[in-house]
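Quick start: what a row looks like.
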Amino acid sequence: MTSLIELFSKLREHRYGRFASLAIIALLLLFSIYVHNMYLAILLGVFAWTLYRALRLAPQAGPKATKPSLEQGFAALERGNGAAVVEIASALTASATTDRERDEAAHLLAWGLYLGGDYSAALKTLEAMPNERDPDPALVGAIELELGRPHRAMPLLAEALGEADDSFVRRRYLLAVTQSGDFAEAARVLRTNDSALAKRVGKSLQAAAMDHHRFREGFEIGVTVFDHTADPNVAIQTAGCLARLGRPENALEWLRKAHAAGFSELNEIEGSADFETVRALPTWPAFKNAATGVIEPNHHEPNQDRLG
């Protein structure tokens, strides 16, 4: 009876068929009592009790679960909800039917594991991808950094930062450079990269080099960044590196570049111990006057030549 009713049920659910069967059984039970057919009444009663028990034990029907999407996963990623990312990615992995779908799901899962602090599992997840797509260099670089391998992280994070400016990547790239101490490699990458990387991280990288007393690398970084940005503050920092390297004449040349690029706060230079050797140069007064707009007096005597 349940099967017959189920054929006409739009949703084809056993639960609806059992309810309909109970209703029909109740009518038949009343009819059997009315005609005094106790045998039939007992059979119908047993059948009704069986259906009732089945309804009690059956799970309640609820709304059908919707398949999660990559968009939902990346929305959870933006919120920093690693547990939700892992849950959505796991469901996407289970329902994936193509290598491309499995790659996307694995990539999302790796992000979730990274947020949860399970860095080794995140890296293994990326390594197990079918490779229909390349892993995100920002993610792999961040994982390598957390695993204590900043040298491996540097090129990956530099690649990601060259593709798009992102504060997450920028912070980790600077951390990878400072942890590795390889400012020379960072300077080389800036020289061989396009202007995007220099504009996005150059000033911070130069400041980090100077904080770590890596003045030669700070100078090299400054040359590249200034070529791409013409930033007067970069020129000042580059001059500071040269002064600390014992090259005051070259430092003064970079102060001239800074002034030509718009730097006018000369009191900062005069109050800095870093530029003491530069201020001791005989050419300093002329630069100072030119930078502050002071016109030097003309000490040449008027022409005393006489015609004979």
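That is the whole record. The chain has a mean pLDDT of 83. The first helix runs from residue 2 to 7.
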